[in-house]
Amino acid sequence: MKGVFALLLAAASAAWATFWMEDIAHRGIAPFNPDRSYTVFRNVRDFGAKGDGSTDDTTAINAAISSGERCGGYACAGSTTTPAVVYFPPGTYLITAPIVNFYYTQIIGDPNDMPTIMGSPSFPVNAIALLDGDRYLSNGKLNFQATNVFFRQIRNLIFDTRNIRGNATAIHWPSSQATLIQNCAFRLSSREGDIHTGIFMEEGSGGMITDLVFHGGKYGARFGNQQYTMRNLTFYGSDTGIEQIWNWGWTYKSLRFFGCNVGINMSSWDVGSVTLLDSSFVNVTTALVTGRNPGIDTGIGSLVVQNVEYRNVPTVLKGRDGQPLLLGDPNGTVRDGGYARGNVYAPKGPRLLEGRNFIFSQPSTLKLGNRYYERSKPQYEHYPVTVFVSAREHQAVGDGVADDTGALNTLFRAASNTSQIVFLDAGYYKVTDTLYIPPDTRIVGEGLAAVIMGAGKNFADESHPRPVVQVGRPGDVGRVEMSDIIVSTQGATAGAIMIQYNLNTAAAENMCAPGRPPSGLWDVHTRVGGFAGSQLQAAECPITPDQANVINSACISGYMSMHITSSARNLYVENSWLWVADHDIEHVNSTRINVFVARGLLVEGTQIWLVGSSVEHHTMYQYQLVNASDIWMGQIQTETPYYQPNPPAPYPFTRNPDLWDPDFDYDCHRHADSNSVGLRETFPCEMAWGLRVVSSRNVVVFGAGLYSFFNNYNTSCSTAMAGESCQARIFWVGGETGDNNTGLFAVEMYNLNTIGSNLATFASTLAAFRC
Ligand SMILES: *[C@@H]1O[C@H](CO)[C@@H](O)[C@H](O)[C@H]1NC(C)=O
Ligand SMILES: *[C@@H]1O[C@H](CO)[C@@H](O)[C@H](O)[C@H]1NC(C)=O
Ligand SMILES: *[C@@H]1O[C@H](CO)[C@@H](O)[C@H](O)[C@H]1NC(C)=O
Ligand SMILES: *[C@@H]1O[C@H](CO)[C@@H](O)[C@H](O)[C@H]1NC(C)=O
Ligand SMILES: *[C@@H]1O[C@H](CO)[C@@H](O)[C@H](O)[C@H]1NC(C)=O
Ligand SMILES: *[C@@H]1O[C@H](CO)[C@@H](O)[C@H](O)[C@H]1NC(C)=O
Ligand SMILES: *[C@@H]1O[C@H](CO)[C@@H](O)[C@H](O)[C@H]1NC(C)=O
Ligand SMILES: *[C@@H]1O[C@H](CO)[C@@H](O)[C@H](O)[C@H]1NC(C)=O
Ligand SMILES: *[C@@H]1O[C@H](CO)[C@@H](O)[C@H](O)[C@H]1NC(C)=O
Ligand SMILES: *[C@@H]1O[C@H](CO)[C@@H](O)[C@H](O)[C@H]1NC(C)=O
Questions:
Q1: Distance 213 CA to ligand 2 centre (A)
Q2: How much distance in Å is there from the Cα of 232 to the middle of ligand 2?
Q3: Closest Cα to atom 11, ligand 9: which residue?
Q4: What is the mean pLDDT of residues 166-179?
Q5: pTM of the model
């Protein structure tokens, strides 16, 4: 169908009284919660919140979050059975104590008339935040371990701390994968003596944050985390826009600073690296402060800057000691096409680099104008509720038991034909065969609690892999949008490809034409094992570090998490976590489990953006690019399975040469490359690749964290004392066979951080790399 969504774009120009999410019938369920009356959707008004700016709404809001025996107390480390959407209609909600967030909560305001969370003058100055994403318990520990804080979002809210005298913070956000803050504003005091902060984040393994505006404050935000991707943040008059407390890698894109004293202060010696793209500083005294003073030759404070403008900025970069390292123009504009400060490893390295005019290849197909393409998750806020069709209203049951294959396939076909938006109510949609998403379909899930779960014999055969969700068939032309959906499996499903993406959007649309964006997946995750209903929990899939090569075949539950095939063109993926569970989320001790999925994300397509993604615990590789071209990857993150090398890769799977699977036997035992022999004999070699790039071109990686913490569940190998020796190799770029560099064109990687694999490739350790 041509002119996709045209009808709706016209309809969208009208103003709608209420956000569809408030109006729509709330049919979402949590089927694996034993309480059949458990309610997912909560409107804070139904709990007595007034939103009138004068009533104290603290108790009502906290009741909306906590009601229904949810996971938020001492005895709960995590839970997928108590998801909630906590919704705020327009209004000003006065609070006198923190709003305390629980596990698996989406806190969402009306984007058409954003509600304000207002701290009252009596708000305690020593309270950690207006909205405490993860509270500190009396034992000094966070309620939820920061690296296990998953599946939560905050959207469309204004946080106002200005009535609070002294110290105040709007959001406390230790956070990890599958989390998001989107479209929020912060109004912070800049009064003398006040220390106000928009977001305070001290730990975790994130994550994605987009579309925030900070007004004032001592700090717009203070960020510390392993890694993160953040986009479209604007700071007006904050003393320091961003204080980077610590990190391994961080990708910032489209930041704007106006009238700040300092833009980004990354001078802490705990800062590993920062990538800053497509940004601007206006009327800022010092744009950047670094801890990487001249002469430092470690990886500390590596900085990559591309396409950044400084207007009326006297100092672009200052050292920790206050020395100016790069000057701007106090009364004019300076533009940095490319600046890099760190170690360069290609063609040979390490070689110290501190300089402007660093040339980046910048594939034009990945840009719109002079900036890399970006698009935030659509919230469809201008559409009336009548445009949405509920899955549970249209014969899908979503109870994790009924087979919803037929109902959903019928619904997707019909919705794509009529340009309606499918609303996948919270629930578990068990499917026994492939769900086909036709071109021109839009699907939005409820509360990250809409789970599509492949089950049964159709997905059981490793020699006949089959997609659970297939987006387009090879040759299909058109566009799709999907958001807030989890694709999963149940039980033994060795042949399941969670998502197979085939659609060609480039052939349908000219992406540069206004209103003609690429296809998009936002907050679409895969999750295998470790949750109630998966049949892959602590009881079924215990770890076996004390036994050699023991596999429970009932815990082999995937062929591949996601395949972007060679027919795929022009796809934007943002905030995607492809996770094979390493632990049982429901278990009070977060007990570890052994679940096996052969492959992570295989990309063979063209013109693909992977913005804020992570792929973890797959047996052969996390990311693999084969004959792919025009690929943008920005802060990618991986973890090697904790069990390896017991069993060694690719066991329990068999290599499929048609998919260009790595050949561990050849690489680790028969390969003659002199660089590799010493490594593979000294360190475990039959370990999953973090990133493997084969015969691909125009690949830009802005930030990568490839981590290997364990050998057979023992972390000794990842300590500095052990020389970070968990695996001999974790990253590879090369030609078809892996023997030489043929077929290797314009692959660039900036700010690579590895754990447990100090000698990252056959050739060298890479921190900034280009061919
Ligand atoms: C405010 O924060 C500063 C700096 O962290 C700290 O020294 C001070 O004690 C805090 N004041 C209060 C009242 O908590
Ligand atoms: C950036 O964020 C602002 C504030 O949420 C929003 O209005 C704007 O549309 C966003 N820009 C892009 C390019 O997404
Ligand atoms: C940058 O942050 C450090 C703390 O990490 C602080 O000591 C220093 O004063 C800050 N620099 C500027 C210019 O604000
Ligand atoms: C920057 O400062 C100049 C001079 O004070 C002022 O005219 C201009 O409006 C400011 N620009 C912005 C974007 O704040
Ligand atoms: C900045 O430039 C303007 C216009 O060129 C000029 O009038 C002004 O005096 C300059 N200010 C400074 C501080 O150099
Ligand atoms: C799609 O719409 C057309 C025209 O409205 C109709 O004839 C056709 O039967 C529809 N197809 C499906 C699969 O619903
Ligand atoms: C959790 O760990 C504690 C302390 O090690 C132990 O006493 C308890 O039995 C464990 N709980 C379960 C359900 O395994
Ligand atoms: C690689 O991709 C190009 C198009 O980008 C295609 O023409 C070629 O056949 C592909 N090669 C292989 C080995 O798949
Ligand atoms: C982990 O490995 C180290 C080094 O090989 C060894 O000393 C230690 O005992 C192991 N720990 C466990 C719990 O097996
Ligand atoms: C690279 O590998 C290919 C495939 O094995 C082989 O055909 C080619 O001759 C090799 N090229 C070089 C320069 O070694």
A1: 9
A2: 6
A3: 714
A4: 98
A5: 0.94
